[in-house]
Design goal:
The complex is a heterodimer of chains A (about 260) and B (about 325). Chain A is mainly α. Chain A has helices spanning about 5-25, 25-50, 60-95, 95-100, 110-135, 145-170, 175-180, 185-190, 205-210, 215-225, 235-260. The chains are: A mainly alpha (about 260), B alpha/beta (about 325). The interface of A and B includes residues 1, 24, 102 and 105 of A.
């Protein structure tokens, strides 16, 4: 077999291992998927009536806000799954089995690739559950199938990017606790974007930050696609951000993994 | 079997942040033998295993493992070795069988032969009954057995065992020793680290004593033990006249009249103990209490370094008290 074929089979083996581990540790997935659902309920039923007053001419403000806030909620789901990856990577690095992998002639990338792909699958599962809950609450997106495919594509790409970044954060952390704390910033970023309120309502400074940080173009592109108005240039910005973060996260994670000293 | 040594090390040095851990190690391990690196905690044994198994780089020195250079061809080394570390390298969330299957997949054994190998190892290490249980429910001995079984999935030619029996109960220890002997009978080379002299003595063809990053003694168990003051049998008497008669009978032995005790040199065998007791019986001398002191790591250290082992954790002396 060629090196590439070995890399693929070893990565598939590691992916199976990680998916099985996620199955055996369901409380984590539950927590990661539960959090965005709590935010969804909170923002629609507690704040939604007030926050949605400016949309749709004040008519059915709660329903209008549900439509508005969904991209933000979906990105919180993505950020939470990425945070989960930092935790599982750190858990692995502090356990003895990683030293076993490192003394075996296996494709070096496969350990991290297995984690990343498992986390992306976990995130997609989370997104499906969150969407189902939103639909049950009355979320009625007007996207056509092509737009839906574009939404799934953009979210998967952005998940992939954040998960690689979090793999690096998990490797950089000395303890599992640190690994679960540092990526918190990522779950905060959707709030400092156009995910929950339009950036025009924010004070200067914060507004500029919100407009130029990666969660905003992804939010806007997803919102445009779901409401049938199209993604426009936001899609390009979202793809560029995702590619950049993924590459930086991958290179950083690879560097940390290769440099890492045994205990 | 080739004539190339399984391990050759010349001038190996390693420091961590200015602290010298290994200071100019030279050693050679012949293929198909058991080599024991004996030393107290903190002597540098684990660092040695980590360097030889390509986990961490050495600062300097020439290191060949299984015919491959650890620096220029680490994957060649990795393909030939198996490592069972001091901390169990098993996946707690998987079952024993899944752990072994994982290893089979990573060794690209293929479905059929992978399955057969896993079943065979589960049987051999008495894990078949617990195969479908999650490893987090395993006992310490079971985890070690699974750990070693995982190392064997890829049929390595050279196996590193870092303190394989530390923390195990005597029965699990015996089982582990038996497994190690079986491996060598199959032609495998074993590099073992241990804090226990009796373990090195039981298993190894050659022993190197590591102290503060240097090898202070090396040889066969026999050669090494000749440098250690042998074991002794300690006798306690109830009455002064019994003590006196025994002292007269046994001749030049270390005596303590105040406490009515004698210390008789012994090689630690049952035969020599039986001979001693036979002599006392024939002379109708009543012994109140007896204990056997076998030479241990402390004695080795004292013999070769002139001071007690540093940072030592195990009991200072093993005692078997008979009443």
């Amino acid at each position: 077999m060629s090196t590439l074929a070995y890399t693929l089979t070893d990565s598939a083996t590691m992916l199976r291992r990680n998916l099985r581990r996620l199955q055996r540790y369901p409380s984590m997935t539950l927590l990661l998927v539960g959090m965005p659902i709590v935010f969804l309920l909170l923002f629609v039923y507690v704040f939604g009536g007030q926050l949605g007053a400016g949309f749709n001419g004040g008519h059915d403000s709660r329903g209008a806000y549900l439509d508005y806030v969904m991209p933000g909620i979906l990105l919180i789901t993505v950020a939470a799954a990425a945070q989960g990856n930092a935790i599982t990577v750190a858990m692995d690095m502090t356990a003895g089995i990683i030293d076993r992998f490192r003394t075996m002639a296996i494709a070096r990338a496969s350990v991290l690739t297995g984690h990343v792909i498992a986390s992306v699958i976990q995130a997609l599962f989370g997104l499906a559950v969150v969407l189902a809950v939103a639909l049950a609450l009355g979320f009625r997106p007007t996207a056509d199938p092509v737009a839906w495919l574009a939404v799934i594509g953009l979210l998967t790409l952005f998940t992939f990017a954040l998960v690689w970044l979090c793999a690096a954060l998990g490797l950089a952390a000395k303890t599992v606790e640190t690994a679960s704390n540092t990526p918190m910033v990522l779950t905060l970023l959707p709030f400092l974007s156009s995910g929950f309120v339009p950036t025009e309502t924010m004070p200067p400074g914060l507004r500029q930050f919100a407009e130029y940080q990666p969660f905003t173009p992804v939010t806007e592109a997803v919102r445009g696609l779901l409401s049938g108005t199209g993604a426009g240039t936001n899609a390009i910005a979202a793809i560029a951000w995702s590619a950049g973060i993924a590459l930086a996260g991958y290179l950083w994670a690879r560097h940390l993994y290769n440099r890492r000293r045994a205990r | 079997m080739s004539s190339v040594p399984a391990i050759t090390v010349a001038g190996l040095c390693k420091s961590f942040g200015g602290k010298v851990v290994l200071d100019g190690i030279d050693l050679t391990v012949a293929e198909g033998t058991i080599f024991a690196l004996l030393g107290p905690n903190g002597a540098g044994k684990t660092t040695m295993v980590q360097i030889l198994s390509t986990l961490i780089p050495a600062d300097s020195g020439q290191i060949g493992v299984a015919g491959h250079d650890v620096v220029s061809d680490p994957d060649g080394v990795r393909a030939a070795i198996g490592v069972t570390g001091q901390f169990s390298a098993v996946d707690d969330l998987l079952t024993g069988e899944e752990n072994l299957r994982l290893m089979a997949d990573l060794h690209h054994l293929g479905r059929g032969s992978g399955r057969r190998r896993v079943a065979e190892l589960l049987d051999r290490f008495e894990l078949a009954d617990a195969a479908r249980k999650q490893v987090s429910t395993y006992s310490g001995g079971m985890r070690r057995r699974l750990d070693l079984a995982m190392t064997l999935v890829g049929t390595p030619r050279l196996i590193f065992l870092d303190e394989p029996t530390t923390g195990l109960d005597p029965r699990s220890r015996r089982t582990m020793w038996r497994s190690i002997r079986e491996l060598v009978a199959g032609g495998v080379t074993i590099f073992l680290t241990t804090q226990y002299l009796d373990e090195a003595d039981q298993l190894a063809d050659r022993i190197a004593v590591l102290d503060r990053g240097r090898i202070v003694a090396e040889g066969s168990p026999g050669e090494l033990k000749r440098r250690i003051p042998g074991g002794r049998i300690w006798l306690q008497f109830a009455a002064p006249d019994a003590w006196k008669s025994a002292a007269d009978l046994l001749g030049p032995v270390s005596r303590d009249e105040e406490n009515l005790t004698l210390q008789v040199p012994s090689d630690g065998t049952v035969a020599s103990l039986r001979r001693l007791l036979g002599r006392l019986d024939n002379a109708r001398i009543e012994v109140e209490q007896l204990s056997i002191h076998t030479p241990d790591l402390d004695d080795v250290f004292f013999a070769v370094t002139g001071r007690p082992a540093a940072e030592q954790e195990q009991d200072s002396e093993k005692e078997v008290t008979l009443r």
